[in-house]
Amino acid sequence: MKILVCVKQVPDTTEIKIDPVTNTLIRTGVPSIMNPFDAYAVEQALRLKEAAGGTVSVVSMGPPQAMSILTDALAMGADEAHLITDRRFGGSDTLATSYILSCAVRQLGPFDVILCGKQAIDGDTGQVGPEMAEHLGIAQVTYVSQLRPDGDRLEAVREHPDRQEILSVALPAVITVVKGEERPRFETIRGRLKANRQEIGILDREALPVEDEKIGLTGSPTKVKRTFTPERHAECVWVEGESAKDQAKALCQALSRAHVI
Amino acid sequence: MSGFVLTKDQRDLKRLAAEFGKQVMLPAAKEYDLLGETPLEIYKQAVEIGFASVTLPAEYGGLGLDMTTQCLLTEELSRWEAGITNALGASSLASKPIMIAGSPAQKQYAVDMIQSGHLAAFGLTEPDAGSDAAALKTTAVRRDGGYVLNGRKCFITNAPYASFFVIFAKTQKNIGTHGITAFLVEADRPGVSVGRHEDKMGLRLSAAADVILENVFVPEENRLGEEGKGFVIAMKTLDASRAEVAAAAVGIAQSALDQSVEYTKNRICFGKPISKLQAVQFMLADMEIQTQAARSLVYHAAELIDNGLPYGLMCAAAKCMAGDTAMKVTTDAVQIFSGYGYMRDYPIEKLMRDAKLFQIFEGTNQIQRVVVSGALLR
Q: How far from A156 is each of A35, A126, A142, A161, A165, CA to CA, in Å?
């Protein structure tokens, strides 16, 4: 099984400051780490490899210093790593990023499974994985906590706020993962020493068959106007009615008004 | 590596030790401190990462790294929990006489056992022979192509869990230390038993007990080095291991210092944080100065070892200084935390209990001074 994990370097803080003028993240002075959900994706990939055999490749798009999280993934046990880096890729939004990643997947692949974290803790969009699946025209399963090889398919446990869904997935597929029960493994000393000496492949604009109008700022239709945490609220409505029949009717009307049915 | 400028590998490995210490070792400290047991699952996890393989020779499958790296990792692990670190250190201590004097088969056995998660123990001390190794009473008598061992070892770290021991015994009486020979003794040999689990004051996540040898037969291939060379092997072992022990003591001092600095910034007294009081500031300054001085000796000693230079005096000096410093700094930390420092619900008093052993084991600090003055007056 050929497995690819997409990882992103993010600032190591939950207290991210946002530039009030540009509405973008202030990144200076904050140590960088592998996006925590991506570390879970690496763990899932290594477990899949242990169960089904194969190789684990890791890819990241970012500035040259993102090399360090690729080395982290190699130290955990990944087989090879590639960095997609070029000034012309800078300023890419999720659409452009997922497009560039999909071109890299075609270039490096084919892969049976492409794993991503469910979202990055800096931008929090959760869009790159699913958009990449669309660019590639392959299946996707999001919010996965467990993965098991099942013949030439995968069995995936998908997490919902109130339930789990167990899906059988045809390959190739993009899977985005949540924090599962198995936390990312510690690297080993041997793994770290080997990783520090391992070559990381570089993919720049010249190495990738991308269309220039689809990358960087030009290829990015997204304009960030404001970022905020949406308020979630649930209220309890008592359905009134003389009889069960009346209550059922009132419930149907309420659900219909709410466009649930 | 020169002085304190770490290589990239060393920085990365130190960070790995910090992550493991913080996320895995520290959370187990309270529970196992009360129990007085080694959390064996955590020990095994540490072995899987490679923390028991650092200086084991690469030709036998170990990591073959230098003593400086070993000391860095030992210090960092000890900063989070010194007991588990000591259990790892005790297995490393037991491997050293084998690496110094063992045959290739003995070395391969020790490396394979330790790297697969087995614990090992170094058995020199006896009820009537601690600092005075010449007073050993355990005997080894030649019989049928091997030796029969009888005697009792005490305060042996890792003994309750060890799969093999390195035992020092007298093959010849009345010639003092020249009659001592070292043996590799597997724990499952008939006649080997382990005594009561000692209820220690500190370092309670590493366990110690007596090892009792009753007519234990070991074949000749279990002898380490030549007959009568046991004392030399033991001294070479302890000379080199002192740097590691000293590094662990520095880790404890650093932990006490770090926690004290944080506490003084938050503890309000007379309307302001106690960190604003010069009496407290000077205590913190002294703790820092002493800890850094001890650390300097440790890495100087490690550098001598790594460069094949004479290191006996410097290792003894480092162990003595680091042990005394850990005791002083942790005692000051308890003073800074005052009532909270003395209560077992808070983490500071454990550091003081843990620190005390570093003035006692692997040669008391009085013995270290004997080594240092002996080298001066030779």
A: 22, 18, 10, 16, 8
Min Cα separation B295/chain A (Å): 23
User: B2 falls in which pLDDT band (50, 70, 90)?
Assistant: very low
Q: How many CA atoms lie within 13 A of B355 on its CB side?
A: 29
Are A58 and A42 in contact by the 8 Å Cβ rule? The answer is yes
Q: State the average pLDDT over residues A155-181.
A: 93
For residue A160, pLDDT over 80 is answered with yes
Q: Find the residue in A nearest to B9 (Cα).
A: A193
Distances (CA, A) of A233 to A124, A230, A238: 20, 10, 16
Q: What is the mean pLDDT of residues B86-112?
A: 96
- Cβ <8 Å between A186 and B49: yes
A117 shares a domain with A83: yes
Q: Is residue A227, in this structure, part of any structural domain at all?
A: no
* Cβ within 8 Å, pair B9-A187: no
Q: For A90-137, write each residue's pLDDT tens digit.
A: 888 889 999 999 999 999 989 999 999 998 888 778 888 899 999 999
Chain A residues closer than 8 Å to B12 by CB:
75, 192, 196
Q: Do A193 and B54 touch (CB under 8 A)?
A: no
Domains B121-228 and B232-377 in one fold: no
